[in-house]
Amino acid sequence: MPDIPPIPNGTALGFDFGEVRIGVATGDAETAMAHPVATVSGESNEAKFSAIAALVREWQPVYLVVGLPTYTDGTEHELTRLARKFGRRLHERFKLPVYWVDERLSSVYAESLLAEAQVFGRKRKTVLDQMAAQAILQGLFEGGAQEWYNGRQAEK
Asked: What is the C-alpha separation between 98 and 92, in angstroms, rounded?
């Protein structure tokens, strides 16, 4: 299988995919810094993709990053399949390359940061997915991608 291409410089949007909420972060490989942006939710996939389209227009990313959830031992599950499908749909809509990153500990990392900052209750729920997306994007900058998609097939 071909090697994963280098991560390009330029703005990226990172996503912590969930069936109910999708956390979004932005960053740039050149500065190797990611920042939380938004939590997307909606009654339908179309509503979620409309909100994501607004973020794509606002941030003008050159590539997208999606967290790839697995069990702690690396075994894939149903949400893994859905995250890959979500990434392919992002590519189809926005014609941008998609990188997938191991997200096994992103929510744990986000939880610990929020606990350290003493963010609890409703406020925590509103930013947890954004913080997980930030961890996913930061993981790309620090460790690279597991897979990428350029419109032809997922490549490991």
From this structure: 10
